[in-house]
Design goal:
Blueprint: H1 2-25, H2 29-48, H3 56-66, H4 78-112, H5 125-138, H6 150-172, H7 177-200, H8 204-214, H9 224-242, H10 244-250, H11 254-259, H12 264-286, H13 292-303, H14 308-332, H15 341-363
Helix pairs in contact: 2-4, 2-14, 4-9, 4-12, 4-13, 4-14, 5-6, 5-7, 5-8, 5-12, 6-7, 6-12, 9-12, 10-14, 13-14, 13-15, 14-15
Length: about 375
């Protein structure tokens, strides 16, 4: 009798192990739906929040009226529709694009460098992008059209220099995760000093404008900033989404990746370039916003899955919702003046990250 029960017991153990692996590395339909629902709810909340309050029903009917063939008539006045479509929605969409960009870039850096503390801010990528953008903005080089604006181009060059320098420092120090992180901190300090020196060379009015931008903000002039950022998000986001499975393979090492038919050098290069470019584009329109790319992937990893097949897309969705949400108090708490959204993300993100580290510490002891 005992011998007959052994296969059943072994089978149940195998099923439990299989279920555990699926939970750790599989995409949860519930998490996906919940993420989209949260994103839509935050977008609606952002649209109705502000000095000129808009009714929820009016916003919904106005959005449905914008969709052809539905036959829904907007209940908002022309003045209210102008506020909705020229002020509120552009800012909400910009916040979602920036938050999603920084979060997916943070997830990509954490995967490609096999370091859970890697993110655009700590690796110096944001600081490098900020320095390039400061040069373009401060010295009148913000020329161009659409996605070919010189500010994203200058920011990308600065971001790429920062991440390459961080990698070079890490390689010289044995390529350990700690050395990479310290190299990023050094690059961030270096580019922050370069930003300060560049700003000191500007006249007072121009320096004030650059500093206000540098602290992190989502001010928009209609849909201009959205159209500047959108092509970078579409292209780079697609690259990172396609390579999300590669990040899981890269975690086991280069030799194992090659044995599985993956070119680790090519994959790593594509991921780094795409993550740096989308970070640079986000920084060029919003300034430096910390903690988004660090905290959001950790939350997804803690609550949903350890696989980058899940972390990358869900980080994009939750990062978009997170930044759009924290922008609401940034523009309403001290109205008519605004608080830099980068300040809010630091206030909210630092305690969350501390809690995540505390839980990880106690879960491994």
């Amino acid at each position: 009798m005992a011998e007959a029960s052994l296969p059943t017991a072994a089978l149940s153990e195998d099923e439990a192990a299989y279920t555990a692996v699926r939970r750790a590395f599989g995409m949860s339909a519930t998490a996906s739906v919940l993420g989209v629902v949260v994103l839509v709810a935050v977008g609606l909340l952002s649209a109705i929040s502000g000095a000129a309050g808009l009714p929820v029903r009016g916003v919904v009917t106005a959005l449905l009226d914008w969709i052809p063939l539905l036959g829904v008539e907007s209940s908002l006045s022309d003045y209210q529709e102008n506020i909705l479509f020229e002020i509120r929605l552009p800012r909400a969409v910009l916040g979602m694009l920036v938050g999603g960009s920084l979060s997916v870039a943070g997830a990509a850096y954490q995967g490609v460098f096999r370091n859970p503390l890697a993110d655009p801010y700590l690796l110096g990528v944001s600081a490098g992008a900020g320095f390039g953008a400061v040069l373009a903005l401060g010295f009148g080089l913000d020329l161009g059209w659409g996605p070919f604006d010189t500010v994203p181009a200058a920011a990308f060059v600065g971001a790429l220099v920062a991440v390459v320098a961080s990698m070079a420092i890490a390689r010289g120090g044995g390529a350990s995760p700690a050395t990479l992180l310290l190299g990023g901190v050094a690059m961030a300090a270096l580019f922050a000093a370069a930003q300060t020196y560049a700003i000191q060379q500007l006249d007072e009015t121009r320096a004030r404008e650059v500093l206000s931008w540098l602290f992190g903000q989502l001010n928009t002039t209609g849909w201009k900033e959205v159209w500047i950022l959108l092509p970078y998000v579409a292209v780079c986001g697609t690259v990172l989404f396609v390579h999300r499975r590669h990040l899981d393979v890269l975690r086991v090492g280069d030799d194992e990746a090659r044995s599985l038919g993956l070119d680790p050098v090519r994959s790593r290069l594509l991921v780094i370039v795409a993550a740096s470019l989308v970070t640079a584009a986000a920084v060029s329109v919003s300034g430096l916003i910390a903690f988004v790319g660090l905290v959001v992937p950790h939350i997804v990893r803690l609550l949903v899955s350890h696989s980058y097949r899940v972390i990358v897309p869900l980080s994009a969705v939750l990062g978009a919702a997170f930044l759009a949400f924290v922008d609401i108090p940034a523009r309403t708490l001290f109205a008519p003046e605004e608080l830099s959204v980068g300040v809010i993300t630091a206030i909210v993100g630092a305690p969350i990250f501390a809690i995540v580290l505390w839980r990880d510490r106690w879960s491994t002891t």
